[in-house]
Amino acid sequence: MTITLYNTATRSKQPLEPIENGKVSMYVCGPTVYDRAHIGNARAVVVFDMLYRLLRHEYGADAVRYVRNFTDVDDKINARAAEEGRPISEITEETTQWFLDDMAAIGALEPNEMPRATAYVPHMVKMIEGLIEKGHAYAAEGHVLFKVRSYADYGKLSGRSVDDMIAGARVEVAPYKEDPMDFVLWKPSDADTPGWDSPWGRGRPGWHIECSAMAYELLGARFDIHGGGNDLTFPHHENEIAQSKCAGHGFANIWMHNEMLQVEGKKMSKSLGNFFTVRDLLDQGVPGEVIRFVMLSTHYRKPMDWTERKAGEARAHFNRWRATLAGRNGGVVDRKVIDALSNDLNTPLAISRLHELWKLGTPEALDALAASLDFLGIDPAFDFLDVWNEEANADYGLTNTDRQNIGAIIDHWTALRANKDYGDADILRNKALAIGLDLSKWTMSESGEDSVDASQFSGDALSDLLEGIK
């Protein structure tokens, strides 16, 4: 099976042709660990986790090497440590573990390697020395800067010219810079700032050199895939390419970038009150699998809009599937799901196939649905959904399955109304009323005393109604 991926560098989809036959290498830019990861950060994690799962499926787990770094030396970290009066190491240890815990909650597998920038400073110093020797960098006033104009292809990844960038960008114009576009490889540190000894004095690395050095040390001079959010295309990835190529490295063959995330149609911003971390959503009772499903429902190269309606629809799908997947843990991942993902990680098409499998309803299709959900990082047992109160169910003659079916019906009715499909919503409500279930009164958190007369319907009636939703 051929996997095709969109390469930002060529503006086209191309087959993945591993440098080393039968093995794949991938580097993804990770977080700067000074605070909780917001849901925009999580999108990149989910996208490249899904690619990692696909690569493992096609090549074997032992044949895929996935590296995602932690930036644990940064001015934002320094500022937070100073503000809270805590050691920098304590801040980075805490926030690194937060990140790992929160990403595990949304189903992300841990990469093979998760290097921390501070462990690779000597390697960065060595790379910087090589760039100076080759005439691509220069030392000035305790800084070392990369000579942007020494690399003829600078701007090719982002599709910009250096002159246009100077005209339209806000760049730091420091007296020690030979050119306004030159960027920092090394900068001096004072007594209160983390620093390492170097040929240019005590200092610390610039941001961009970190990934070039770590990718080289862990994956070699050439590797298959480099990924990250499209906000990193310029300047971070552009600078990575320049310094790595000038150091004599082939670097990445395919560059992949996911689009950004909005909340309820607006850019996420603390000032707008729509800024959420992954932990915020988890603490509000949104299961990690729901977060993941919503993110996978939009193609990674399209802007994604996080909405409460989408989260509710995800719950509705899960409730419907839970009613028919109980006890199923066999089967193999559906081939059409794999085909969709192999075509530039088309997760929306893969999810459409999940709905088809559920509607087919055969034992083979349901087994494939369970296996495919697990492959997508979602527990097919749906243990993360609400646990029904058995005692309250018994009071009204309801089994646990009855409550699950009612939940699935109500979720579907709610989704219809949210989508303004009022005609279909009214039809469903009338069908429910015919068997004694008043959808407008029932709530998931209450017993349903006002809306359920258990003598009027059986589990079969609920199952038949649920079947009609398919």
Compute the CA-based radius of gyration.
26 Å
Q: How many E-type strands?
A: 13
The largest beta-sheet arranges its strands as: 4-3-9-10
Order of helices and strands: EEEHEHHHEEHEEHEHEEEHHEHHHHHHHH
Tally of DSSP helical segments: 17
Share of helical residues: 40-55%
In the predicted model, the low-confidence regions spanning at least 5 consecutive residues are: 387-396, 443-452
Distance between the termini: 32 Å
Beta-strand fraction estimate: 5-15%
- Structure class: alpha/beta
- In round numbers, the mean pLDDT is 88
* Largest beta-sheet characterization: 4 strands, parallel
Label the overall shape: elongated
Report what the structure shows.
The protein is elongated and about 80 Å long. The protein is built from 17 helices and 13 strands. Strands 4-3-9-10 form a 4-stranded parallel sheet, with helices on both faces. It has a 4-stranded antiparallel sheet with strand order 5-6-7-8. The chain has 470 residues and is of the alpha/beta class. The longest helix has 21 residues, at 39-59. A hairpin with a 2-residue loop joins β11 and β12.
Topology:
Layout: E1 4-7, E2 12-15, E3 24-28, H1 39-59, E4 64-68, H2 75-84, H3 88-105, H4 121-133, E5 137-140, E6 143-146, H5 162-168, E7 183-188, E8 203-205, H6 207-219, E9 222-229, H7 233-246, E10 251-258, E11 261-263, E12 266-267, H8 278-283, H9 288-296, E13 304-306, H10 308-325, H11 335-342, H12 347-360, H13 363-375, H14 390-395, H15 400-418, H16 422-434, H17 459-469
Parallel strand pairs: 3-4, 3-9, 9-10, 11-13
Antiparallel strand pairs: 1-2, 5-6, 6-7, 7-8, 11-12
